[in-house]
């Protein structure tokens, strides 16, 4: 049987107070467990309580580098290393790495204006070399073309000499051809016409003419005899044999054409021979075949590349006072002269680069 004991009010408060205190402490513990600490910065340590692990959030680091950093810090803590000694080693390592980078990439530490000038020098040297190569190629082509022309001229002259020496052979061949084709026909017409014109002066038949002129005269005499025949027939009131007259006219025209061709071939042969005899042993065109090419390319250089080269030289020479080539960038009339300027630009650029690297090394290691 249970009973409810009546308690006075003050005693009841004393009994409940410990319970209230325990409740408050429990709430405080819960509040402490929910505490979240945060900091800002590139590398910010966050500590949330005593005997807790330290979490370092480093933005911008890869996982591999972050792990290496953790290993390094744990080693420092575990081996109780002197932080000043560690910092000294790190500084020395940084300096050694800087020296290694400078050795592997010496141009990386040069000022931007210097790098710009060096790049300009490389570009101009390349452009200069390309122009020089094109110029030289054009000059070679011009010389080769002139040589081919001289060779053709000499060959034609030699052929002319051969033609001149074989002039007699040409006459002999043409005379035989005339005798085979025209002489028999003209001789037959000569005999026929003299029967109708007995009082006409006799015409000696020519079997093999000695020249084209003799053959032409023979054919002309037969043609004149034909006209005499026609006149006699007209005076006597008798018709002439038109078929015979036409045959004689055609034979005369053919023979006359043959003689003209014969004469032309003979003249061509003699003319070639005389030209060959007058031909000098050297070229008939003494002018330099590359003069036109040189003039055009020199003008091209003057208008395009020369101002850039002079500007580069004037910008670099004060930086390298010990360098002096004495080469004039204005006087360029051949590809070989331009080649000398190209070489000078490269040498000047190399001297400037060497001086710039020496100055950069001196700044990196004072007193060196």
Automatic annotation (TrEMBL):
Location of region: Disordered: 271-300
Keyword set, alphabetical order: Signal
Signal sequence segment: 1-21
Biased segments, Polar residues type: 281-294
Protein name: Uncharacterized protein
Organism lineage: Bacteria, Pseudomonadati, Acidobacteriota, Terriglobia, Terriglobales
């Amino acid at each position: 049987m249970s009973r409810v004991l009546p308690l006075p009010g003050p005693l009841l408060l004393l009994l409940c107070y410990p319970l209230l205190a325990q409740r408050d402490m429990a709430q405080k513990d819960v509040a402490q467990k929910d505490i979240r600490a945060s900091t800002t910065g590139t590398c910010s340590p966050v500590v949330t309580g005593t005997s807790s692990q330290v979490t370092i959030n480093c933005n911008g680091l890869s996982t591999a580098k972050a792990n290496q950093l953790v290993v390094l810090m744990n080693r420092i803590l575990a081996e109780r290393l002197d932080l000043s000694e560690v910092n000294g080693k790190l500084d020395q390592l940084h300096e050694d790495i800087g020296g290694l980078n400078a050795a592997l990439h010496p141009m990386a530490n040069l000022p931007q204006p210097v790098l710009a000038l060096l790049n300009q020098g490389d570009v101009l040297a390349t452009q200069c070399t390309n122009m020089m190569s094109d110029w030289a190629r054009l000059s070679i082509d011009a010389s080769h073309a002139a040589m081919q022309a001289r060779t053709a001229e000499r060959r034609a002259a030699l052929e002319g000499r051969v033609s001149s020496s074989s002039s007699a052979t040409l006459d002999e061949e043409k005379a035989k051809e005339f005798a085979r084709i025209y002489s028999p026909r003209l001789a037959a017409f000569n005999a026929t016409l003299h029967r109708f014109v007995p009082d006409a002066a006799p015409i000696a038949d020519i079997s093999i003419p000695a020249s084209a002129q003799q053959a032409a005269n023979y054919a002309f005499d037969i043609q004149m005899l034909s006209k005499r025949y026609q006149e006699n027939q007209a005076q006597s009131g008798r018709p002439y044999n038109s078929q015979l007259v036409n045959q004689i006219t055609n034979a005369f025209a053919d023979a006359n054409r043959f003689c003209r061709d014969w004469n032309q071939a003979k003249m061509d042969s003699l003319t070639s021979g005389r030209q060959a005899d007058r031909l000098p042993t050297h070229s008939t065109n003494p002018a330099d075949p590359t003069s036109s090419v040189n003039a055009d390319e020199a003008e091209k250089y003057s208008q395009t590349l020369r101002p850039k080269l002079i500007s580069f030289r004037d910008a670099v020479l004060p930086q390298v006072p010990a360098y002096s080539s004495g080469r004039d960038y204005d006087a360029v009339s051949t590809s070989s002269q331009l080649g000398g300027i190209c070489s000078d630009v490269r040498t000047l650029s190399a001297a400037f680069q060497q001086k710039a690297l020496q100055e950069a090394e001196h700044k990196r290691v004072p007193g060196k």
